[in-house]
């Protein structure tokens, strides 16, 4: 049990490159990266579905590798780069993965969608011509409660096709 | 405050692709909701954080049953960032208890004298952020006097100890229904099979938890509450009653994007009430609460049906089913909430697709020290179909008849529809034997051939490795478009019920209102909320067709609970049908108004003008008035003729066949979508693990308004069916401690659990509905579990195993196989 | 689910980390945070100081030498999964790594964190036990090594002291000549996101891979989630050693394993079920490992 009765809790100044822009902030070390991105940087695409690493809704890319932002603290990002869905395409246009999700009806309530897009993005960057089984394995950290996944697999396949030659 | 949440223009442009015959209904129109979600711009409840907003956290008990001796909040109050602490006594001093699904039970938003389930909130705090709020919880001390909890629902019926002292019993509701001559049917039948089946505590668990932002208006003494509650225009009483305010003073508005609900979010009023009270105590400072996942799983009032069945089936040697006798106990946890009538809905599909005349149906609603039930997709039907289909399989084994044949020979024939069930609901249309036969042909053709999953050689080979394959064929009815009048049967006095006449029946309509913008855009307001079903898209399709417009000419927004009339909304697979009717009605009103306005403007007779192709045309001239013109003219006339509203009545209201059901408050579900299913499963008999290799499903929901959305609903529903059948369960141990309080333990189906799904579609329009559409929001969850169990039974036929527990987890199947070995 | 307040430290070297451990009262190490983050969120852990060692580059390496393999404690599951060197000499480890959650968790979670947490179901704990690894542990006072069979003491309790840091694990290659050794990790996981119901690691070395029925020279068999600690079954190993693997032998090893494991009841896996599963996996993983030792893959 915490015995903290004061307000002078420790804080840290951090400087993080978020979607290409430098953000500096004074944060408590306990601040989760997910909360930092949502509440300090106003990046609504980062969804929070479980806060215990299971659902994948909070998936972002940290220095090029996907991570569940509910299991990282903002202080850990000092000097690092983070990318969220807001940073994967130019304003007003859609990334081919986003396009494909739309075309294949790969979202219903949409709460899982950002996480799937971030996972798919890293995966396709490493494996541009995947098999169905590889796609499934790559999305094992993300849960969707609405779609039954098939359309999501189809969307990633379609995105892979569309991105070929890019 | 109405919310639009409209998509960007990009999505708009592509939305205007019509079918060859020029309609939008029936196309797989891509959803207008997608763009904002894909780009992260969508606003869910957790995105709403007004300036200066405080955050609420709840202290929840870890005891299943205890008296509260003392709540010491002084530690929290001493904290400099503590803005508010409230206990059950504080709430009770000024407010009312929350409405109960049954009379005689008082439930408070915060526990007062005793706690009745693990996770029940006993105190609330408010602080500038959630982290600090949780710090405060650690500083509250509660002294309890603990007691042995009441955990087993079957034992609880003995009332040795009761959950609610004042009530005096743990069975506050039960009813026996006897249709036909059941005793005779059982007496005369060649054999009677009797078995017990168990359906675990399973629920929706949407990816987004419950959330609320409440703001009290000090000047007007009223509340604005943003929350992701489902059915906000129907269940708003669960919020305004505890607050003690009039409906008009508590406005609930639901963001245009909700991260799934599946029925579960109907019951999130506790949070709304507490946040509202907090905001009022804090002189109108907005207060926000988003449930965390552990709160959600252990004490979020969101578990659902948890049943023990005893089923008897009377069967002749030739396979004729003469009678059915269904008995079950449903564990509602500590408080019977809104969905008490989940115990009744199965009456709407009493015999599934079988023609059985003599049926007994008997339930007991039991209270225990567990978290309360809410609604979940299917609303009590999935366990019923599961238990019934298991009994059918046992009867087939007993009689030595192939289960496919036994099912076929007892199905309701196409010449029998519309078919009135013994329990008075009516199946509208469908050829069930035809569907089952067609599906079987397909599967046998595709799979029982070389290279197929059921290639006899492969099946034999796999068996040698201990992997048993099987395919099960079954057909299921999905009751759709619930009436509302019957839903309070359990709170209706039996004498009143007996004396009711058809005129006493009062249904809730589906309401739409709309107006024309300056630029000619038609803006329509839904009086319901949405959680991923694509209502904006479907309404655009419907209205575009009805008004001869393009979907991009139409914008869809939402009304809050104070603006909207009381109506039903998104539940019970109502929307496709109810929106169809409401859209037709609204379009009719619009056209009528447009014509009146144009006639007045041109000063001609009404018969000299007509609305078509998105404009009013003047007879014998080239003159037309576009919607934008009409909007401008309307400004001058001040008669609001470019606005319209329409309340669409329930489609069964004028179908005589439903009179008996309506009058006697039997569940009324006038559409019968159906599915013939054939999952192919493989059971590893050494580990008990079940793999679904492929899921064939032939589905029919009448006219499909949007096939893309229909298919999405089917696949999502089937995935939930798979979860229920194999993975999900909120178990409790003997001390009343919940065993699944994280997503490591409450197992949602993952990418590895859901197979490729082969969906086939037929369209048998409903004669009872405006577009011929049938309700189909719940399908796969209703028919998935039963059909998977049927397939497992088939695979494990050599061991005479029948799935008698859902979920059919590996250790449960192993237990059966082990017994079979010995 | 928000953690209690703590001070954050991010040492750049193992030495700095051990000094912090020595100096700070009530400090906890944080590796990939894929488990620690959850108990922090639940406030089951509320340390005053958190020492983040996940970015200590000096602790992140896979070093395959002629005699031994050494893996830095902060090597990520993904590093293990994708290491060609490990796939060549200790294929058990990448195979087990693949079964941990999905790519995002594997990008953060570490070998050292798995050992530090000592969950009886941990994949690496199970494999490293079979491989007879040795843990290198450092504190401000110096370094020591702990043989893995002396490491897991009781449920989530280990031989590492509060002021110590696991720096690496070392596996001697002597017992595992690539051309005569086969390895297999078998697991039941009910869904991708959850931990194993039960896992088994088997390692088999044969005398002559080209013989018709090669004799087993050395066998290792360990289990995840079959007791309150990761469990190695020496009796079962002895039973298969010195003979070619036959159906009969597999049956009797399975019986031995059934009795040797000491599993706990769980919600959807009771004790008997886990015993059966351990027995089944003993058979299956040994059979595959034996095949692999002969170069017959699957
Ligand atoms: C969704 C999900 C599924 C998972 N499934 C599996 C699975 O199937 N199998 C499996 O094995 N794991 C699984 N895990 C756990 C994962 O492997 C974790 O990464 C691992 O258990 C802990 O490693 P970590 O690096 O994250 O350590 P942390 O979580 O940071 O630390 C764990 C503990 O170890 C201590 N510690 C860390 N490093 C050291 C060190 N160098 N010396 C001493 N003590 C140390 C910490 O103080 C802490 O107490 C899963 C995790 C998630 C989120
Ligand atoms: S919110 Fe991070 S994984 Fe669920
Ligand atoms: S679309 Fe709702 S969770 Fe995936």
Protein described:
The complex is a heterotrimer of chains A (166), B (822) and C (298). Chain A is an alpha+beta fold and 166 residues long. In chain A, 31% of the residues lie in helices and 15% in strands. Chain A contains five helices and five strands; from the N terminus they run ββαβββαααα. Chain A starts with 11 loop residues before the first strand and ends with a helix. Residues 1-5 of chain A have low confidence and may be disordered. Chain B has a seven-stranded mixed sheet with strand order 3-5-1-12-9-10-11, with helices on both faces. The termini of chain B are far apart. Chain B folds into three domains: 47-147 and 210-290, Alpha-Beta Complex (Aldehyde Oxidoreductase, domain 3), CATH 3.90.1170; 381-482 and 662-821, Aldehyde oxidase/xanthine dehydrogenase, molybdopterin binding domain (Aldehyde Oxidoreductase, domain 4, 2-Layer Sandwich); 509-648, Aldehyde oxidase/xanthine dehydrogenase, molybdopterin binding domain (Aldehyde Oxidoreductase, domain 4). Chain B contains 22 helices and 30 strands. Chain C has two domains: 1-174, 2-Layer Sandwich (Uridine Diphospho-n-acetylenolpyruvylglucosamine Reductase, domain 3); 178-293, Enolase-like, domain 1 (2-Layer Sandwich), CATH 3.30.390. Chain C has helices at 14-23, 36-41, 77-82, 84-89, 92-98, 103-108, 111-117, 123-130, 234-240, 247-260, 271-293; strands spanning 7-9, 27-30, 49-52, 62-64, 68-72, 134-139, 142-147, 152-154, 157-158, 165-172, 181-188, 198-206, 216-224, 231-232. In chain C, the strands form four sheets. Chain C has a five-stranded antiparallel sheet. Chain C is globular. The model of chain C has no long low-confidence stretch (mean pLDDT 97). At the B-C interface, helix 5 and helix 22 of B face helix 11 of C.
Q: If helices are DSSP runs of H or I spanning 4 or more residues, what is the number of helices of chain C?
A: 11
Question: Do you know the CATH architecture of the largest domain in chain A?
Answer: Roll
CATH topology of the largest domain in chain C: Uridine Diphospho-n-acetylenolpyruvylglucosamine Reductase, domain 3
Describe the main β-sheet of chain A briefly: 5 strands, mixed
**In the CATH hierarchy, what is the class of the largest domain in chain A?**
Alpha Beta
Number of helices of chain A: 5
Poorly predicted runs of chain C are none
Taken in chain order, the helices and strands of chain C follow as: EHEHEEEHHHHHHEEEEEEEEEHHH
Q: Structural class of the helix and strand makeup of chain C?
A: alpha+beta
Q: How many distinct domains of chain A?
A: 2
């Amino acid at each position: 049990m915490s015995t903290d009765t004061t307000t002078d809790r420790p804080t840290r100044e951090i400087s993080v490159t978020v979607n290409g822009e430098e953000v500096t902030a004074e944060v408590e070390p306990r601040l989760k990266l997910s909360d930092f991105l949502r509440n300090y940087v106003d990046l609504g695409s980062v969804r929070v579905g479980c806060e215990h690493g299971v659902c994948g809704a909070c998936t972002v890319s940290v220095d090029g590798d996907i991570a569940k932002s509910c299991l990282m603290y903002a202080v850990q990002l000092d000097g690092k780069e983070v990318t969220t869905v807001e940073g994967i395409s130019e304003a007003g246009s859609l990334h081919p993965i986003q396009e494909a999700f739309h075309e294949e009806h790969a979202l219903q309530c949409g709460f899982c969608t950002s996480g799937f897009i971030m996972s798919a993005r890293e995966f396709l960057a490493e494996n541009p011509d995947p098999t169905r089984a590889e796609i499934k394995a790559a999305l094992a950290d993300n849960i969707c409660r609405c779609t039954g996944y098939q359309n999501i697999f189809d969307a990633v396949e379609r995105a892979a096709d569309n991105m070929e030659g890019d | 405050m109405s919310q639009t949440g409209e998509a960007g223009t990009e999505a708009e442009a592509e939305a205007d692709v019509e079918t060859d015959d020029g309609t939008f209904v029936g196309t797989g129109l891509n959803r207008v909701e997608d763009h904002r979600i894909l780009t992260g711009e969508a606003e869910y409840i957790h995105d709403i954080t007004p300036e200066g907003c405080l955050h609420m956290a709840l202290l929840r008990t870890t005891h299943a049953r205890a008296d509260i001796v003392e709540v010491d909040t002084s530690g929290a109050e001493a904290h400099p960032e503590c803005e508010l602490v409230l206990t059950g006594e504080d709430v009770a001093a000024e407010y009312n208890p929350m409405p109960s699904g049954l009379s005689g039970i008082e439930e408070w938003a915060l526990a007062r004298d005793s706690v009745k389930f693990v996770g029940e909130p006993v105190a609330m705090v408010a602080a500038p952020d959630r982290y600090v709020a949780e710090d405060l919880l650690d500083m509250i001390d509660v002294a309890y006097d603990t007691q042995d909890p009441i955990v087993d629902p079957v034992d609880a019926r003995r009332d040795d100890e009761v959950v609610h002292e004042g009530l005096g019993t743990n069975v506050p509701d039960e009813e026996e229904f006897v249709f036909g001559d059941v005793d005779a049917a059982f007496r005369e039948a060649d054999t009677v099979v009797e078995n017990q089946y168990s359906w675990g505590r399973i629920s929706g668990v949407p990816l987004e938890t419950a959330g609320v932002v409440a703001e009290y208006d000090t000047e007007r003494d009223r509340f604005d509450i943003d929350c992701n509650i489902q059915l906000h225009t129907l269940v708003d009483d669960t919020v305004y009653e505890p607050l003690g305010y009039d409906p008009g003073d508590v406005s609930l508005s639901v963001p245009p994007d909700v991260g799934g609900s599946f029925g579960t979010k109907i019951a999130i009023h506790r949070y709304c009430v507490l946040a509202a009270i907090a905001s009022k105590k804090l002189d109108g400072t907005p207060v926000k609460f988003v449930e965390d996942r552990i709160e959600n799983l252990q004490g979020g009032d969101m578990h659902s049906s948890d049943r023990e069945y005893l089923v008897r089936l009377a069967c002749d040697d030739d396979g004729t089913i003469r009678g059915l006798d269904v008995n079950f106990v449903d564990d509602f946890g500590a408080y019977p909430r809104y969905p008490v009538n989940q115990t009744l809905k199965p009456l709407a599909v009493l015999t599934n697709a079988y023609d059985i005349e003599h049926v007994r149906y008997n339930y007991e609603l039991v209270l225990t020290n567990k978290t309360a039930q809410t609604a979940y997709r299917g609303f009590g039907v999935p366990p019923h179909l599961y238990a019934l289909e298991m009994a059918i399989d046992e009867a087939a084994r007993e009689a030595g008849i192939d289960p496919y044949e036994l099912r076929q020979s007892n199905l309701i024939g196409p010449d029998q529809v519309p078919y009135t069930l013994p329990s008075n609901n009516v199946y509208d249309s469908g050829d069930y034997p035809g569907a089952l036969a067609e599906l079987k042909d397909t599967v046998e053709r595709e799979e029982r051939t070389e290279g197929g999953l059921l290639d006899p050689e492969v099946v034999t080979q796999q068996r040698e490795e201990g992997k048993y394959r099987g395919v099960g064929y079954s057909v299921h009815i999905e009751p759709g478009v619930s009436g509302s009048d019957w839903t309070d049967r359990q709170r209706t006095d039996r004498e009143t019920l007996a004396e009711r006449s058809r005129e006493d029946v009062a249904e809730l309509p589906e309401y739409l209102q709309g107006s024309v913008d300056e630029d000619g855009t038609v803006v329509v307001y839904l009086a319901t909320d949405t959680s991923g079903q694509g209502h904006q898209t479907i309404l655009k399709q419907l209205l575009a067709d009805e008004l001869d417009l393009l979907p991009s000419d139409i914008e869809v927004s939402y009304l809050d609970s104070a603006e909207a009339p009381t109506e039903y909304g998104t539940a019970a697979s109502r929307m496709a049908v109810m929106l169809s009717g409401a859209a037709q009605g609204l379009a009719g009103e619009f056209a009528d108004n447009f014509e009146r306005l144009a006639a007045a403007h041109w000063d001609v007779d009404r018969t000299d003008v007509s609305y078509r192709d998105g404009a009013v045309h003047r007879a014998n001239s080239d003159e037309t008035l576009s919607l934008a013109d009409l909007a401008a003219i309307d400004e001058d006339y001040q008669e609001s003729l470019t606005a319209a509203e329409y309340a669409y009545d329930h489609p069964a209201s004028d179908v005589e066949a439903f009179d008996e059901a309506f009058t006697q408050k039997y569940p009324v579900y006038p559409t019968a979508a159906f599915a013939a299913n054939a999952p192919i499963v493989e059971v590893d008999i050494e580990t008990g693990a079940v793999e679904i290799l492929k899921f064939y499903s032939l589905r029919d929901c009448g006219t499909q308004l949007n096939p893309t959305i229909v298919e999405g609903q089917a696949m999502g529903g089937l995935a939930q069916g798979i979860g229920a059948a194999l993975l999900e369960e909120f178990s409790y141990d003997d001390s009343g401690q919940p065993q699944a309080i994280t997503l490591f333990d409450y197992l949602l189906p993952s990418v590895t659990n859901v197979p490729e799904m082969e969906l086939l579609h037929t369209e048998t329009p409903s004669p009872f509905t405006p577009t011929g559409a049938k309700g189909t929001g719940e399908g796969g969850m209703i028919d998935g579990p039963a059909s998977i169990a049927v397939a497992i039974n088939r695979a494990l036929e050599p061991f005479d195993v029948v799935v008698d527990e859902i979920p059919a987890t590996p250790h449960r199947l192993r237990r059966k196989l082990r017994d079979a070995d010995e | 689910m928000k953690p209690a307040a703590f001070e954050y430290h991010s040492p750049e070297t193992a030495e700095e980390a051990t000094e912090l451990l020595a100096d700070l009262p009530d400090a906890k190490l944080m590796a990939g945070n894929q488990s620690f983050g959850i108990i922090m969120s639940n406030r089951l852990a509320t340390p005053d100081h958190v020492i983040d060692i996940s970015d200590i580059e000096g602790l992140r390496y896979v070093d395959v030498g002629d005699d031994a393999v050494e893996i830095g404690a902060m090597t990520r599951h993904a590093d293990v999964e994708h290491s060609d060197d490990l796939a060549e000499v200790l294929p058990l480890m990448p195979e087990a790594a693949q079964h941990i959650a999905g790519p995002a968790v594997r990008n953060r979670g570490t070998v050292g964190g798995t050992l530090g947490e000592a969950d009886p179901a941990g994949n690496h704990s199970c494999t490293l036990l079979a491989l007879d690894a040795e843990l290198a542990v450092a504190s401000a006072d110096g370094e020591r090594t702990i043989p893995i069979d002396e490491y897991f003491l009781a449920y989530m309790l280990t031989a590492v002291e509060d002021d110590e840091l696991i720096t690496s694990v070392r596996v001697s290659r002597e017992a595992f000549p690539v051309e005569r050794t086969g390895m297999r990790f078998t697991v039941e996981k009910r869904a991708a996101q959850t931990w194993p119901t039960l896992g088994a690691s088997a390692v088999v070395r044969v005398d002559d891979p080209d013989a018709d029925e090669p004799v087993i020279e050395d066998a290792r068999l360990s289990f995840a989630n079959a007791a309150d600690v990761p469990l190695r079954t020496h009796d079962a190993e002895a039973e298969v050693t010195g003979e070619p693997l036959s159906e009969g032998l597999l049956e009797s090893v399975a019986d031995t394993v059934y009795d040797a494991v000491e599993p706990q009841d769980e919600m959807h896996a009771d004790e008997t079920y886990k015993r059966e599963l351990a027995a089944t996996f003993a058979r299956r993983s040994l059979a595959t490992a034996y095949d692999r030792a002969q170069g017959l893959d699957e």
